[in-house]
Design brief:
The protein has 146 residues and is mostly helical. Helix content is 67%, strand content 7%. The longest helix has 26 residues. The radius of gyration is 18 Å and the shape is globular.
């Protein structure tokens, strides 16, 4: 059996487990009640590239500009994101986190640590460094000969 055929169903199971762990970690952070993982992804994108506008947020998220516009507008209505005129291009609107949006993003960083601990709890301590190194390679997109 090819490695990819063996890995495909495991990836599906891993993604479901990761999603469950992420939801549980979010629920344990009092400042994150009512905040979805999708909300946090948008907040993080705004924090990283929001100064360049909604198009940059959409590109960062790998979604369409209309979908990003809707997501940002929803967070803006909740007081988590603000729009302002871009200092270098008056035709564009820069996005930024409000103080409340920043608090939520910081609380999510704590939930990320909880989620990482929960994932690592399934792995023997002696293998954790290897797993982290492998994830780092995957995140970087490194390829190696077969």
């Amino acid at each position: 059996m090819k490695s990819s055929a063996r890995l495909a169903p495991l990836l599906d199971a891993f993604m479901r487990r990761l999603s469950d762990i992420e939801r549980g970690a979010l629920a344990r952070q009092p400042g994150l009640r009512g905040v979805t993982p999708g909300d946090v992804r948008v907040l993080r994108a705004v924090d990283r590239v929001g100064v360049s506008g909604v198009s940059a947020v959409a590109q960062h998220l790998g979604t369409s500009q209309p979908a990003a516009t809707v997501a940002v507008a929803r967070l803006e209505e909740r007081g988590l994101v603000v729009r302002a005129t871009n200092a270098t291009d008056g035709r564009r609107k820069a996005l930024a986190l409000t103080a409340k949006g920043r608090q939520i993003e910081q609380a999510h960083q704590l939930s990320d640590l909880d989620a990482a601990e929960a994932l690592l709890a399934c792995v023997p301590r002696t293998d954790r460094g290897v797993l982290i190194d492998l994830f780092e390679q995957i995140a970087k997109g490194e390829t190696h000969p077969a």
